[in-house]
Amino acid sequence: MGRLRLELLDRIEAFSHAVLDVVGLMDDQGVSRRIVDQLAASGTSVGANVFEADEAMSRKDFVKCLSIAAKELSETRYWLRLAIGRD
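RE: above sequence
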């Protein structure tokens, strides 16, 4: 059994699916391939790291994985802002 609530894991997985939906739309609209690829990578990495944290063997590993997930969320925000042209 993992450390995190199933509701959180479900929400994180839904976030990854939403990112992939947005990436598909961006690709269809001709957004730069570099931005699309970076957004897909960072957006899905959030889920991968949270799910890895859920099965962490130690508290240190748990914190490390969640810290990486937080950084990936920040990167995802950056790529989204860049794609829509906001400061």
